[in-house]
Amino acid sequence: MPTLETSIVLGRLWGVALVVVSLGFLINRRRLSYLAGMFAHEGVLILSGILCLIAGLTTILLHNVWTADWHGLVTLFGWGAMLKGLVRIWFPEQLSRWLKSLSGREFWWLTPAFVITLLLGLYLLMATRIVPAVF
User: Fold this and answer.
1) Per the domain annotation, does 21 fall within a domain?
2) CB neighbours of 53 closer than 8 A, spacing ≥ 6?
3) Rounded distance, CA 70 to CA 2, Å?
4) Distance between CA atoms of 6 and 19, rounded to whole angstroms?
5) Angle between helices 92-102 and 42-62 (to 10 degrees)
6) How many domains does the chain have?
7) Mean pLDDT, consecutive 10-residue segments, the chain of 135 residues?
8) What's residue 2's pLDDT?
């Protein structure tokens, strides 16, 4: 069982990352097409997969807690990052082809996903007391 301090640090880490990335994409939505093209390179996919794998494994090894609160959400993000890393490492060619097919398209459908991600990040920051709770 992880210590409360470990849970809080990981909750804050994931919360800040989710808020920063979500806001960045919501503010610069036109950059998503460029980003899809950049990630279409297999080397970038493999490198980002290694980073996702490390982030996910670190979270899972330090905090594999399945509860119906923010602790479980931290664990869920860890497992998601690990699986995302494995897919990028194991299937870079297939992902590269798929991302190339998306290059130049509009990504309007990602806006709701980034809003949800932003809200989840804010929830983690409120739960770990880095942002005062407003509810």
Assistant:
1) yes
2) 81, 82, 85, 86, 89
3) 14
4) 20
5) 110
6) 1
7) 86 96 89 75 94 98 95 97 98 90 74 94 93 62
8) 72
Instruction: Report residue 28 as tokens.
Output: 């610069």
> Are 10 and 74 within 8 A, CB to CB?
yes
Supply the range of the domain harboring residue 98.
Answer: 4-127
What's the token pair of residue 70? 């923010």
Please give the single-letter amino acid code of residue 48: S
Amino acid at 113: A
Looking from the CA of 98 toward its CB, the CA atoms found within 13 Å total 7
Q: Is residue 110 part of a domain?
A: yes
State the residue for tokens 């990040």.
Answer: 121
Lookup: tokens for 74: 């931290």
pTM to 2 decimals?
Answer: 0.88
